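Moderator note: this is an archived Q&A kept for reference. The question asked for a predicted structure of one protein chain; the sequence and the answer are reproduced below.
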Amino acid sequence: MIDNSRKTAGDILIVVDVQNGFTKKYTVEKIPLIEDLLSRRLFDTVVATKYWNTPDSNISRLMGWKDLCTEAEQDLVPEIKPYVDHITTKNIYSGATPEMTELLKNLNGGSLPEYVFLLGFDTECCLLSTAADLFEMGVRPLVLTEYCGSHDGPRYHDAGIISLEHLIGPDFLIMDENIKSRENIRDIVSRVMEKSV
């Protein structure tokens, strides 16, 4: 049950790493869908994460992956910028960083929200890691799967969805939703909250 006795953030959407460097052949088709969703202003707050690949990141150091090292690659795609209220940065997979945790608490009257919505790139890496970490913190991550993708292709996106289904449970995967109104958002929240304590 949501505690409405204190100031709450309302519906928060976390947009994970929708950046120029992750917008490739297999994710570019998601940009118009994400832009359309954001343009409807259905969420009270939109938070975007940005992955900054620093020389000391584990991904650089241990995997030798050198993408997203330039500001141009790291920048959010221009289509979503007008709709973003807050940006948090990271050099790890998960967007559930101390900076994000503090922001969520500040938005929600001092405690973590009951739930947040999630979408973005890459489903099998940063989005999965963010959703799993939020889940571990006791926040219900409502993953809008139609608005997620992997720049490495459908095989990786599908693997991410299967893993998320196992990690956080199928009830938190909002599949093939045509989200056009606040009523759609309220229906999703009501459905999920009824199934979880």
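Archived answer notes: The helical segments are 30-39, 58-63, 71-74, 98-107, 123-136, 154-167, 182-195.
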